Amino acid sequence: MQQNVRRSRGDSPVNIIGAGIAGAWQALLFAQAGHAVTLHERSDEDLTLSTSHWAGGMLAPYCEAEVAEPIISRLGLRSLDIWRRELPDTPFNGSLVVAHARERNDFERFGRMTTDHERLDAEGLASLEPALEGRFREALFFPAEGHVEPRRVLPKLHERIRAAGGTIRFNSDVRPQDLDGIVIDCRGLAARDEHPELRGVKGEMILVKTSEVKLSRPVRLIHPRWPLYVIPRENHVFMLGATSIETEDEDWCISVRSALELLGAAYAVHPAFAEARIIEFGSGLRPAFPDNLPRISVRGRRISVNGLYRHGFLMAPALAELTLRYVERGMIDNEVMQCG
Ligand SMILES: Cc1cc2nc3c(=O)[nH]c(=O)nc-3n(C[C@H](O)[C@H](O)[C@H](O)COP(=O)(O)OP(=O)(O)OC[C@H]3O[C@@H](n4cnc5c(N)ncnc54)[C@H](O)[C@@H]3O)c2cc1C
Questions:
Q1: What three-state secondary structure class fits 45?
Q2: Ligand 1: which of 51, 261, 314, 323 to mutate, most ligand atoms within 8 Å of CB?
Q3: Is the confidence at residue 289, as pLDDT, over 90?
Q4: Sheet containing 295-299: which strands, arranged edge to edge?
Q5: Residue 282 pLDDT more than 50?
Q6: Mutate to test the pocket of ligand 1, among 73, 302, 310, 314 (most ligand atoms within 8 A of CB)
Q7: C-alpha 163, offset from chain centre
């Protein structure tokens, strides 16, 4: 691991716009490689204007393979290595997939479409997550997956950027064309001026608090419309997520119907959630290109990294590594990069 790298490579400064998960990883890898990095963020340190603030933070390349293209798994697997290398305290204690009897066929299909899981019977599930004893007849366990808490890990990454010699400017609303040197545009959905084809896909979430349920890892509940999950956070908090709705609503609100479904999913995982306290409702717009795949677009010294859609936490480290390799060695990853 490279830490406290303060040497400057003596070439162009690197200006990165957006301190969400994409920009934070770009800034960290470039600063560690010795570039003079400045990270600009329009909001304050709480990052409430970023999609990353609302995310689940699951690092789940195997589960996501059920619906995502192979490129997501490739970038995701590489990213897991980088998360482990740079933030070794990231919890990698796996994730679980469960289903009620009526979703049995979808559960079987999930198992067929994914790899690197173990099938657990009720006893195996109870030994892994005692709170789920007697709740489900079977589960799929993905032991190599991890999860982070976005609101804790983003400040940690920002701290690491500073330790590597980078500068972060919060409350700094900038335009790519006004900056010198190499500009890496990680503005997410705000980059629609440069990428009119970007769209927002709304994800709604709820935070609840209870000391009646103890879970150590994310639990996904098979659902006919979207993957619903319960993610344990610190201090008895759980995140319930997430819907996936094609709308550009930027009101950060959630609908009554979504609230019912998310709360219903928690209750289905464990009835003790009925007494939990609701501490937050919220939503973010996932930045997505029409094919839902990430893209690194290069135009001279301006590079845009966008379209991270449902997988920003999963893919951002690998995308940063590819951008760095391009800037330093001219290496082009044909699947992700567009030059011209
Ligand atoms: C409910 C929900 C759950 C999710 N769960 C997961 C999950 O479990 N795992 C996973 O991998 N992904 C998940 N995602 C997806 C993930 O959140 C996104 O892919 C990711 O946040 C996109 O990151 P980004 O950095 O591209 O954009 P953003 O996080 O939006 O960051 C862009 C930043 O640029 C800043 N900015 C914009 N314009 C300017 C400007 N002019 N000047 C300066 N700064 C500017 C913004 O303020 C913002 O902070 C989830 C998303 C949602 C909504």
A1: coil
A2: 51
A3: yes
A4: 167-169, 37-40, 14-17, 182-185, 302-306, 295-299, 337-339
A5: yes
A6: 310
A7: 23
